[in-house]
Write a structure and sequence with these properties.
2 copies of one chain form a homodimer.
Chain A (H helix, E strand, L loop, with lengths): L2 E5 L14 H7 L5 E5 L9 H13 L4 E4 L6 H7 L3 E3 L4 H10 L3 H9 L4 E4 L1 H4 L28 E3 L16 H11 L4 E3 L4 E6 L2 E6 L3 E4 L6 E3 L8
Parallel strand pairs in A: 1-5, 2-3, 2-4, 4-5, 6-7
Antiparallel strand pairs in A: 1-8, 7-10, 8-9, 10-11
Family (chains A, B): Belongs to the peptidase S51 family.
InterPro entries (chains A, B): Class_I_gatase-like, Peptidase_S51
Keywords (chains A, B): Dipeptidase, Hydrolase, Protease, Serine protease
Chain lengths: 233, 233
């Protein structure tokens, strides 16, 4: 049974890395002794090793070992044999470029579709969508393709932010950007606020966490969806 | 003599479209009776016609006619014969995709290098840089190439925003994103705050406008540069 958790963010304001998700993760990774961590998104340019170490420390507190995908001589075999996956946040362009260049996107997708648990945060959640066209990240590298795993039949806008009514800035709001997306695409977009996540258990897809989500469908006014609701467009 | 004006934004808070730039534009387009407007970035999904009309109304106040590039049967010829150019803001991915797909990027670059005045705002300024890798926009379409005109030997981050010390949001700051860019690229980046622009007169490249700019060079701490300074890395 497909078992996927796609979180808006790894970290809530004033909290430790992954702290708000830890109560979920023991159950999510039940029976898993070691996960493969995909560090390719490199937030702030952190090294693969340092990023993996940060993740290792947190997962140690729930008794799960962590091994970085970059440490395997044959990453495709590592994915084929993994008991569980976590892809951390950072730059989505970089993450997607690496997964395509190393020919790992499809292998990863197949393993997750077969029931191996997959946790993503931020960029790691974006790649659970149909494509990466709703990332907020800067295009610092040129991926060979924007297509991602399509574990869910929609895209995620991570770190979703409501327009700030007090802003004096002329940059586009998140809502305007997603509206521009829907001029050229009809993929639904889930605006996932920090503290929320998408849960997939087999065919059941729900929003979860502390905030309602904002749903954008092509040609329709966006609307709010309470946490716990089915995502069924 | 190369004559280029690349502005961070078209519009300042509480002002009309292009209002703060109008005092510059009469002199900038001196002797020009008609410009070609490039509406491809389509902010908020606005049509090419509506976007061109909005621009036409403003330029009428300084006695300059406007024709949308989309209205020419042969856009390459239109570019080859134009007296001046304005590329408006919107989505940089869309703008770059269109210019590459229509094979117009190189023609436009050559005309501007030969001295035809070029005004850009926001996305229209991004394409004056070496490539579009420092846009803030959402990748709603997949361009065949991120390379842009390279009218200046650096990239522009339009609508540059300082980190908000009161923010409780975990999305990356602009500074973090540009730092991530410099892990993989060594092109200098000018963080251009709203109200500021880059002016090119022949070989003289300066920042202008109401705000200092923030300069990001690979491997160095970012620094502030007063308006009026030479951009000479």
């Amino acid at each position: 049974m497909k078992n996927v958790l796609l979180a808006s963010t790894s970290t809530l304001f004033g909290e430790e890395y992954l702290a708000y998700l830890l109560p979920e993760l023991s159950g999510f990774f039940a029976g898993v002794s070691e996960i493969v961590f995909i560090p390719f998104a490199r937030p702030g340019g952190i090294s693969h090793d340092d990023y993996t170490e940060k993740v290792r420390e947190v997962f140690a507190t729930i008794g799960i070992k962590v091994r970085g995908l970059h440490t395997f001589a044959e990453p495709e075999t590592a994915i084929a044999e993994a008991e569980g996956f976590f892809t951390g946040g950072g730059n989505t362009f970089l993450l997607v470029q690496q997964l395509h260049d190393l020919k790992l996107m499809e292998t990863l997708k197949q393993r997750v579709e077969s029931g191996i648990p997959y946790l993503g945060t931020s960029a790691g959640s974006n790649i659970g969508g149909v494509n990466m066209k709703n990332t907020n990240d800067m295009p610092i590298v040129y991926p060979s393709d924007f297509t991602t795993m399509g574990l869910v039949p929609f895209n995620i806008n991570a770190h979703y932010l409501d327009p700030d009514p007090t802003s004096t800035h002329n940059g586009e709001t998140r809502e305007t950007r997603i509206k521009e997306f829907h001029v050229f695409n009809d993929t639904p977009v889930v605006g996932l606020r920090e503290g929320s996540w998408v849960s997939v258990k087999g065919k059941v897809v729900r929003t979860k966490g502390s905030k309602p989500s904002r749903i954008f469908l092509a040609g329709m006014a966006p609307y709010e969806l309470e946490s716990g609701s089915l995502l069924n467009f």
